[in-house]
């Protein structure tokens, strides 16, 4: 599970993760937030003296950055209530200063005012759809699609469309194009790069010919390919203009 920063008003922690639309914070992040001399040790000392705080903690495998490397470790993390309890048991100046802010954080979470970032929701939807594709068609898969649609608030048709795009090679970070009906069609990054290479090597190739030659390009429309062609053509034009200006600059 990846680490992402958490920011809410004046509360900022550089190590956090989202699980079931709920943020969790590492001991090191909480200790650094309190400006403790030894962040991890300080928070562990507070938790050991107040065992009831562990009720609001759990353990996850997180991808942590240590020096120049990224390592995966099982780490104990605390939810917003556990975070608030740790602040309440601390006597550091910043803890006293932010106890009221932490109370507002918990209140905002309980009211549903805090939600995971959009990219986290999109990636979670992609992972759930990819798992649904592994299930038996006409048996387990319809149940999975129904659940995904209910949880994400999307129509069944949209979820099935995502499944189809994943089968065609789309990933959670793929770019989007528009088809003739105004809906969105996903093109994988590899497909876009293949189209760009053809546009550079064969400027006179038509959109129809490109769609026939590039795998998975058939999920897009001619308009999408033409848009890529125009972008590449403009890039080539700018490169030519730069070369001409560089050549004329030698006369000055």
Biggest beta sheet summary: 5 strands, antiparallel
End-to-end separation: 58 Å
Structural class: alpha+beta
> Kindly state the mean pLDDT as a whole number?
79
Tally of separate helices: 10
Low-confidence stretches: 177-184
Number of strands: 7
| Strand content range | 15-25%
Portion of residues within helices? 40-55%
Tell me the series of helices and strands, N- to C-terminal. EEEHHEEHHHHHEEHHH
Output the strand order for the largest sheet.
Answer: 1-2-3-5-4
Note the overall shape.
extended
Task: Tell me the Rg in angstroms.
Answer: 25 Å
Short description:
With 252 residues, the chain is α+β, with helices and mostly antiparallel strands. It is built from ten helices and seven strands. The strands form two sheets. It has a five-stranded antiparallel sheet with strand order 1-2-3-5-4. The chain has a two-stranded antiparallel sheet with strand order 6-7.
What does this 3D model show about the protein?
By secondary structure, the chain is of the alpha+beta class. It has three domains: 112 residues, no CATH class; 51 residues; 78 residues. It has ten helices and seven strands. Strands 1-2-3-5-4 form a five-stranded antiparallel sheet. Strands 6-7 form a two-stranded antiparallel ribbon. The longest helix has 28 residues. About 3% of the residues have low confidence.
């Amino acid at each position: 599970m990846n680490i992402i920063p958490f920011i809410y008003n004046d509360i900022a922690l550089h190590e956090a993760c989202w699980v079931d639309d709920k943020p969790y914070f590492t001991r090191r992040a909480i200790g650094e937030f309190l400006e403790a001399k030894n962040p991890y040790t300080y928070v562990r000392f507070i938790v050991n003296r107040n065992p009831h705080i562990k009720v609001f903690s759990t353990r996850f495998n997180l991808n942590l950055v240590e020096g120049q490397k990224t390592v995966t470790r099982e780490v104990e993390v605390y939810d917003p209530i556990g975070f608030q309890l740790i602040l309440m048991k601390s006597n550091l100046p910043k803890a006293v200063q932010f106890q009221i802010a932490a109370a507002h954080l918990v209140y905002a979470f309980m009211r549903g005012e805090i939600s995971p970032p959009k990219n986290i929701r999109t990636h979670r939807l992609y992972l759930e759809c990819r798992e649904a594709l592994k299930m038996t068609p006409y048996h387990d898969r319809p149940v999975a699609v129904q659940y995904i649609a209910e949880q994400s608030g999307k129509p069944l048709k949209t979820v099935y469309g995502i499944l189809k795009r994943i089968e065609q090679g789309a990933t959670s970070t793929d770019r989007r194009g528009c088809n003739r009906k105004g809906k969105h069609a996903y093109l994988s990054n590899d497909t876009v790069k293949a189209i760009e290479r053809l546009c550079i090597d064969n400027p006179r190739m038509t959109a129809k010919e490109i769609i026939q030659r590039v795998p998975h390009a058939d999920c897009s429309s001619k308009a999408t390919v033409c848009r890529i062609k125009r972008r590449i053509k403009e890039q080539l034009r700018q490169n030519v203009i730069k070369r001409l200006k560089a050549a004329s600059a030698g006369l000055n």
